[in-house]
Protein backbone atom coordinates (compact mmCIF):
# COMPACT_ATOMS: atom_id res chain seq x y z
CA UNK A 1 0.00 0.00 0.00
CA UNK A 2 1.43 3.38 -0.98
CA UNK A 3 2.20 5.84 1.77
CA UNK A 4 -0.28 8.54 2.74
CA UNK A 5 0.74 11.98 3.94
CA UNK A 6 1.46 12.03 7.66
CA UNK A 7 1.56 8.25 8.01
CA UNK A 8 4.57 6.35 9.42
CA UNK A 9 6.72 4.62 6.84
CA UNK A 10 9.54 2.14 7.07
CA UNK A 11 10.06 -0.64 9.59
CA UNK A 12 13.28 -1.47 11.46
CA UNK A 13 14.33 -5.08 11.14
CA UNK A 14 16.96 -7.46 9.83
CA UNK A 15 17.61 -7.51 6.10
CA UNK A 16 16.96 -10.93 4.51
CA UNK A 17 20.10 -12.99 4.03
CA UNK A 18 19.41 -13.37 0.31
CA UNK A 19 18.97 -9.63 -0.33
CA UNK A 20 20.88 -8.16 -3.27
CA UNK A 21 23.21 -5.47 -1.89
CA UNK A 22 23.97 -2.61 -4.28
CA UNK A 23 26.08 0.52 -3.93
CA UNK A 24 24.31 2.81 -6.41
CA UNK A 25 20.99 3.28 -8.19
CA UNK A 26 22.03 1.82 -11.54
CA UNK A 27 23.26 -1.36 -9.87
CA UNK A 28 19.80 -1.63 -8.32
CA UNK A 29 17.87 -1.15 -11.56
CA UNK A 30 20.17 -3.51 -13.45
CA UNK A 31 19.57 -6.21 -10.82
CA UNK A 32 15.84 -5.78 -11.40
CA UNK A 33 16.25 -5.94 -15.19
CA UNK A 34 18.26 -9.17 -14.84
CA UNK A 35 15.50 -10.70 -12.72
CA UNK A 36 12.86 -9.70 -15.28
CA UNK A 37 14.83 -11.21 -18.16
CA UNK A 38 15.29 -14.44 -16.19
CA UNK A 39 11.57 -14.60 -15.36
CA UNK A 40 12.31 -14.33 -11.63
CA UNK A 41 10.73 -12.30 -8.84
CA UNK A 42 12.38 -9.00 -8.01
CA UNK A 43 14.99 -9.42 -5.27
CA UNK A 44 14.89 -7.53 -2.00
CA UNK A 45 17.50 -4.79 -2.34
CA UNK A 46 19.98 -3.69 0.29
CA UNK A 47 21.02 -0.13 -0.52
CA UNK A 48 24.54 0.89 0.49
CA UNK A 49 24.66 4.10 -1.57
CA UNK A 50 22.99 6.08 -4.33
CA UNK A 51 20.30 8.73 -4.62
CA UNK A 52 17.42 6.51 -3.45
CA UNK A 53 19.55 5.53 -0.43
CA UNK A 54 20.15 9.24 0.27
CA UNK A 55 16.44 10.03 -0.11
CA UNK A 56 15.59 7.31 2.42
CA UNK A 57 18.07 8.72 4.95
CA UNK A 58 20.63 5.95 4.50
CA UNK A 59 23.62 5.95 6.81
CA UNK A 60 27.00 4.42 6.03
CA UNK A 61 27.35 0.92 7.43
CA UNK A 62 23.74 0.52 8.61
CA UNK A 63 23.35 -2.74 6.66
CA UNK A 64 26.52 -4.17 8.24
CA UNK A 65 25.62 -3.18 11.79
CA UNK A 66 22.19 -4.84 11.66
CA UNK A 67 20.39 -1.51 12.18
CA UNK A 68 18.61 -1.63 8.84
CA UNK A 69 15.15 -0.30 8.02
CA UNK A 70 12.92 -1.84 5.36
CA UNK A 71 10.75 0.21 3.00
CA UNK A 72 8.19 -0.61 0.33
CA UNK A 73 9.16 1.24 -2.86
CA UNK A 74 7.55 2.13 -6.18
CA UNK A 75 9.36 0.94 -9.29
CA UNK A 76 9.86 3.30 -12.21
CA UNK A 77 9.59 2.06 -15.78
CA UNK A 78 10.67 4.05 -18.82
CA UNK A 79 10.33 3.29 -22.51
CA UNK A 80 13.29 4.92 -24.26
CA UNK A 81 12.27 5.01 -27.93
CA UNK A 82 10.38 1.78 -27.27
CA UNK A 83 13.01 -0.04 -25.15
CA UNK A 84 11.92 -0.82 -21.57
CA UNK A 85 14.22 0.06 -18.69
CA UNK A 86 13.65 0.14 -14.94
CA UNK A 87 14.65 2.94 -12.61
CA UNK A 88 14.59 3.30 -8.84
CA UNK A 89 15.67 6.96 -8.57
CA UNK A 90 15.39 9.05 -11.74
CA UNK A 91 15.41 9.51 -15.49
CA UNK A 92 17.10 12.64 -16.87
CA UNK A 93 16.89 13.82 -20.49
CA UNK A 94 18.76 16.91 -21.65
CA UNK A 95 20.34 18.54 -24.66
CA UNK A 96 24.05 19.39 -24.82
CA UNK A 97 23.66 22.75 -23.05
CA UNK A 98 20.90 21.72 -20.61
CA UNK A 99 18.62 24.38 -22.05
CA UNK A 100 15.92 21.78 -22.66
CA UNK A 101 15.55 19.26 -19.86
CA UNK A 102 13.06 16.62 -18.75
CA UNK A 103 13.41 14.74 -15.47
CA UNK A 104 11.29 12.01 -13.89
CA UNK A 105 11.91 11.53 -10.17
CA UNK A 106 11.10 8.58 -7.93
CA UNK A 107 13.75 9.79 -5.46
CA UNK A 108 14.45 13.31 -4.28
CA UNK A 109 18.13 13.56 -5.23
CA UNK A 110 20.39 13.29 -8.29
CA UNK A 111 23.86 13.52 -6.82
CA UNK A 112 24.12 16.88 -5.06
CA UNK A 113 21.06 18.22 -6.87
CA UNK A 114 17.73 18.20 -5.03
CA UNK A 115 15.86 17.86 -8.33
CA UNK A 116 12.62 16.48 -6.88
CA UNK A 117 12.10 18.19 -3.51
CA UNK A 118 8.55 16.77 -3.24
CA UNK A 119 9.24 13.37 -4.80
CA UNK A 120 8.46 10.36 -2.59
CA UNK A 121 9.52 6.79 -3.47
CA UNK A 122 6.27 5.22 -2.28
CA UNK A 123 3.41 7.56 -3.18
CA UNK A 124 2.45 5.81 -6.42
CA UNK A 125 3.35 8.97 -8.34
CA UNK A 126 6.25 10.03 -10.56
CA UNK A 127 7.26 13.69 -10.28
CA UNK A 128 8.26 15.12 -13.66
CA UNK A 129 9.71 18.50 -14.60
CA UNK A 130 10.10 20.00 -18.08
CA UNK A 131 12.47 22.93 -18.35
CA UNK A 132 13.20 25.36 -21.17
CA UNK A 133 15.65 27.88 -19.78
CA UNK A 134 17.73 30.68 -21.23
CA UNK A 135 21.35 30.88 -20.11
CA UNK A 136 20.71 33.43 -17.34
CA UNK A 137 17.90 31.33 -15.88
CA UNK A 138 19.99 28.16 -16.11
CA UNK A 139 22.72 29.77 -14.00
CA UNK A 140 20.17 30.90 -11.39
CA UNK A 141 18.55 27.46 -11.28
CA UNK A 142 21.89 25.62 -11.01
CA UNK A 143 22.87 27.74 -7.99
CA UNK A 144 19.68 26.66 -6.20
CA UNK A 145 19.58 22.97 -7.11
CA UNK A 146 21.38 21.86 -3.96
CA UNK A 147 18.60 23.16 -1.72
CA UNK A 148 15.60 22.43 -3.94
CA UNK A 149 14.78 26.15 -3.96
CA UNK A 150 14.90 26.29 -7.78
CA UNK A 151 11.16 25.63 -7.69
CA UNK A 152 8.76 27.14 -8.45
CA UNK A 153 10.14 28.69 -11.64
CA UNK A 154 8.19 29.99 -14.67
CA UNK A 155 10.49 28.07 -17.04
CA UNK A 156 10.01 24.73 -15.24
CA UNK A 157 6.72 22.88 -15.60
CA UNK A 158 6.05 20.31 -12.85
CA UNK A 159 3.62 17.41 -13.16
CA UNK A 160 2.69 14.56 -10.82
CA UNK A 161 1.01 11.47 -12.24
CA UNK A 162 1.12 7.68 -12.49
CA UNK A 163 2.37 7.90 -16.06
CA UNK A 164 3.55 10.48 -18.56
CA UNK A 165 4.68 10.45 -22.18
CA UNK A 166 6.77 13.11 -23.89
CA UNK A 167 8.18 13.78 -27.35
CA UNK A 168 11.27 15.93 -27.94
CA UNK A 169 11.82 18.13 -30.98
CA UNK A 170 15.41 16.86 -31.25
CA UNK A 171 17.05 13.77 -29.79
CA UNK A 172 18.01 14.21 -26.13
CA UNK A 173 20.73 12.52 -24.10
CA UNK A 174 19.10 10.06 -21.70
CA UNK A 175 20.34 9.00 -18.27
CA UNK A 176 18.64 6.22 -16.30
CA UNK A 177 19.64 6.07 -12.63
CA UNK A 178 22.80 8.00 -13.45
CA UNK A 179 23.94 5.93 -16.44
CA UNK A 180 23.99 7.41 -19.95
CA UNK A 181 21.95 4.98 -22.06
CA UNK A 182 21.90 6.84 -25.39
CA UNK A 183 19.79 9.44 -27.15
CA UNK A 184 16.06 9.41 -27.82
CA UNK A 185 13.17 11.57 -29.00
CA UNK A 186 10.40 9.82 -27.10
CA UNK A 187 10.02 8.76 -23.46
CA UNK A 188 7.08 7.09 -21.72
CA UNK A 189 7.38 6.89 -17.94
CA UNK A 190 5.20 5.13 -15.37
CA UNK A 191 5.47 3.82 -11.82
CA UNK A 192 4.40 0.49 -10.41
CA UNK A 193 3.33 1.14 -6.80
CA UNK A 194 4.73 -1.07 -4.03
CA UNK A 195 6.70 -3.18 -6.50
CA UNK A 196 9.89 -3.45 -4.42
CA UNK A 197 11.21 -3.81 -0.89
CA UNK A 198 14.50 -2.18 0.00
CA UNK A 199 16.62 -1.91 3.14
CA UNK A 200 18.93 0.94 4.14
Structure described in brief:
By secondary structure, this protein is of the alpha+beta class.
Q: How does this structure look, described?
A:
This protein is an alpha+beta fold. The protein is 16% helix and 42% strand. It has four helices and eleven strands. It has helices at residues 25-37, 51-55, 62-65, 135-144, and strands at residues 11-12, 20-22, 45-47, 69-80, 83-87, 90-94, 100-105, 126-132, 156-161, 163-176, 179-199. Strands 1, 2, 3, 4, 5, 6, 7, 8, 9, 10 and 11 form an eleven-stranded mixed sheet that branches. Strand 4 (69-80) and strand 5 (83-87) form a beta hairpin. The protein is globular and about 50 Å long. It starts with 10 loop residues before the first strand and ends with a strand.
Series of H and E elements: EEHEHHEEEEEHEEE
**Fraction in helix:** 10-25%
Overall pLDDT metric: 92
Anisotropy-based shape: globular
Helix count from the secondary structure assignment: 4
The rounded distance between the terminal residues' Cα atoms is 19 Å
Quantity of strands, as a count: 11
By helix and strand content, what is the structural category? Answer: alpha+beta
What oligomeric state is this? single chain
Bin the strand percentage.
35-45%
Rounded to the nearest angstrom, the radius of gyration is: 17 Å
Main sheet: strands, sense, barrel: 11 strands, mixed
Give start-end ranges of low-pLDDT stretches.
Answer: none
